[in-house]
Amino acid sequence: MDRTIVDFVKALRTAELKVSPAETLDAMAALDVIGIEDREFLKNTLSMVLSKTPEEKESFETCFEQFFTFEQFQGNLIPADDVSHDDDGGEFDPSDDDNPQAGEGRGGGAGMGGGGGSASEGDESDSTADVPNTMQPESRLGQLLMNNDKTEITIAVVEAGREVEVNQIVVFTQKGLYTRKIMDAMGLPELQDEISELKGHGGLPQRKLSNLLKSGRDTLRERVRDYVERQFFLHADEQGKQLREELLKKVKLSNLEKRNYKDVQQVVFKMAKKLIAVHSKQRKTVKRGQLDVRKTLRHNMQYDGALFDIKWKATKIDRPKVMAICDVSGSVSNYSRFLLMFLYSLSEILPKVRAFAFSSDLGEVTRLFDQSGLEDAIAKTMRDYGNGSTDYGQMLQDFKSNCMDDVNNKTTIIILGDARNNFGDPRAEILREMYDKSKRVIWLNPEPKMSWTVGDAEMKKYAACCHQTEVCNSLMHLERVVGNLLRSVS
Amino acid sequence: MSIKNEERLASIEVIQENFEKLDYICNLQIATAVFLAYHLGKPILIEGPPGVGKTELAKTCADMLDLECIRLQCYEGLDESKAIYEWKYGKQLLYTQVLKETLSEILQGATGLAESVSMLHDFGDIFFSEEFLEPRPLLKALRHEDGCVLLIDEVDKSDHEFESLLLELLSDFQLSIPEIGTIKADPEHKPLVFLTSNNTREISDALKRRCLHLYIPFPDAPLERRIIQARVPDISEKLRNQLVTFIQELRDMDLKKVPAISETIDWARTLILLHSESLDADLVRQTLNVILKFQEDIESIDAEVQTITNKAVKET
Q1: N or C: which end of chain A has fewer CB within 10 A?
Q2: In chain B, what residues touch A308 (CB-CB under 8 Å)?
Q3: What pLDDT band is residue A77 in, cutting at 50, 70 and 90?
């Protein structure tokens, strides 16, 4: 059972649950206590030990269901009327499934890991005594097929799968390879030899047997393929997803297509979560050497006023106050979308984000984001402010008249735009004013640095009035900028 | 004692039954958690929306096992002097005063400074001994002779530092006091530890790793009916069903704070006080402030009260 747990934990990890080795050990200890008879009980237990958030519990659920389906291979491998055994068809319960004539020799095939080879030997003598006309195959796999015991076949497939390490499967093109490997491990070569030998023999019973074996082999192959497929979904599907996510992080945001948005959103949430985890701790710096007299006196009242416990002055570090000004005109709107998405996913550690959008006239969209969901808010922003020709001068003018009073030395202003001003007046002096008043002005430009001065771009003028200018055209860049933003204050 | 507890926690069904006797109706997961916590000797971290009976679970558990329930309410700024132990400074002071007067007697016969200092050293150790130790909830729980139920309520309200402070207790059931040494719980009578969290912030992985994680969601309708039956036995079956259907409807709506079980129970009690037999829209409007705690919420569902009430009355 230990090995099964380890395999299961591995499957959980590919499903992005963080399971530590210590928790794996806990799970094993828990198994010792509860046993494995009751499936529901087992599930509840493992869910408690291994998954530690409501979201994790959900993915745990699906993973558990996938992993612990000991789905019987349904239906018979060999058509029932051809075999002399009267098999009672596709029942699911393994213990009832032994057919009356052949079952006695095996003693219930439901036990885990019952060796396929040795068990079927006893069976052989039974069957031949009952039905002398049917020949029995000699190869191990052949016997397994003729016995037609679904439980045993299932076990054999699972064991063979373990032997060839099917859980190492990575990409879907490997399905065929693993199917063949499992078949080989189950003894396909011997069966093949036997089939061809029987065919060559020429006698009627031999020919009949060889046909039976052949159809059995083909059905078995189908089943094994299904099994490998399920294993693939369990072990590798998520890995592929991770690969895709890595790619999404690096790709240029303007190249993303609509169908990717959903994935990207997930990636953004994940990145945001990481940043939250790193920065959520509210830090205090303790200024040593400055006595906090009030606090000390009050605290030491309980000791009859003797100053045992001395308190120092501490300053709390404030979260940055962020103002994000986003160009949502056609050329840059995609980038703005993701910057806003990023900032608002961080609301837990950045509670004071104010967002502005403009093409020419600046408008505050903070309320939109507070009231409606991220998707809606972005769509509405794009609708209301997007698709005009850009005018940075106008934007800065609007900012000055509306919001300049709110800017103080704790404010960080992030401007996202390509600084292409259609040869209008850049009004860089307003940006200079913002630069002087605020803590930081960060300009994110999606274009590569080379083209910052080409054509109608005013980046050169603006850059002089920014604390920091960055190229920013992928999620990776965004993450870095936002990460720096959080770090610079703590 | 422990043999009796062994019986009371013998299997999940037994636990469920015992809880039910104490009017705490629980689902399989909760019973499994208690079972595992006892048999593996691990703390349980309980998460879930407010008012689903997280704290109640710990209290009921203590009742069931006849153990004392030691509760530590967490808040911002909680530190070890309030959670684990503190020195009785006053007493220490008093004793120093006494010592001062008898100092010359004690130091009699000492020749030279070195000898006097070494004699005084022995006293120093006495000042930091168990005599002068004021145990706080965590230490009390650890040293409790019969074992106890330790409830650390709303861990998410405390600081990160405090969370780390708990780690030693949770994994090894021991606490280190620098002046005295490590204090360990009696392996036969380990405290049964419950931590609750409202998820206002993410609990650190280190803490989660050491605990069993139990998530208690809002109950479904049949379970909630049973809970109301157990807690408010006076209520008529008809009214109970209507009430639960109404609440379940509310939980699907966009509200600032959806009503939890505790609100349902309060509401049931209110309705009994008002001698009402069945729900109607006016009655609901008048008593809405029992289940909804925001004026905004009350206003927003005002228009729909009639429809939901009708639905609740019709369905039952």
Answers
A1: N
A2: 89
A3: low
Residue B185 in tokens = 């719980």
CB distance A356 to A325 below 8 Å: yes
pLDDT value at A117 more than 60: no
C-beta atoms of B12 and A308 within 8 A: no
Chain B interface, best mutation among A25, A38, A48, A61, by max B CB count within 10 A: A48
- What is the reported pLDDT for A97? 36
Question: What are the structure tokens assigned to A55, written together?
Answer: 């979201």
Using the Cβ of A17 and the Cβ atoms of chain B, whether some distance falls under 8 Å is answered with no
Task: Look up residue A204 and give its two tokens.
Answer: 């009627």
Chain A residue closest in CA terms to B200: A348
Instruction: Say yes or no: ipTM exceeds 0.85.
Output: no
Contact B32 A48 (CB under 8 A): yes
pLDDT of residue B266: 92
| A280 or B288, greater pLDDT | B288
Is the pLDDT confidence value at B152 over 90? yes
Say whether both A140 and A204 belong to one domain: yes
- B167 CB within 8 Å of a chain A CB: no
Tens digit of each residue's pLDDT (9 = 90 or more) over A213-243: 888 888 888 888 888 887 777 776 666 677 7
Q: CB–CB of A148/A87 below 8 Å?
A: yes
Nearest to A480 by CA among A279, A271, A239, A206: A271
Question: Is any Cβ of chain A less than 8 angstroms from the Cβ of B29?
Answer: yes
Judgement on whether residues A44 and A88 belong to the same structural domain of the protein: no
pTM, to two decimals: 0.67
Query: Do A376 and A458 have their domain in common?
Result: yes
The verdict on a CB contact (< 8 Å) between A40 and B12 is: no
Residue A75 located in a structural domain = no
Range of A395's domain?
319-487
Q: Tell me the chain A residues in contact with residue B39 when contact means C-beta distances shorter than 8 Å.
A: 33
Rg (CA), chain A: 34
- Helix (H) / strand (E) element for A437: namely helix A428-437
Q: Inform me whether the pLDDT recorded for A289 exceeds 60.
A: yes
Residue A2 host element (H or E): helix A2-14
CA dihedral A387, A389, A393, A396 (to 10 degrees): 0
- Co-location of A343 and A387 in the same domain: yes
Total domains, chain A: 3
Mark whether A112 and A40 lie in a shared domain.
Answer: no
pLDDT of residue A421: 83
Residue of B89, B202, B214 with shortest CB distance to A277: B202
| Domain end position, chosen among A47, A69, A91 | A69
Q: Which of residues 185-214 of B touch A (CB under 8 A)?
A: 201-202, 205, 208-209, 212-214
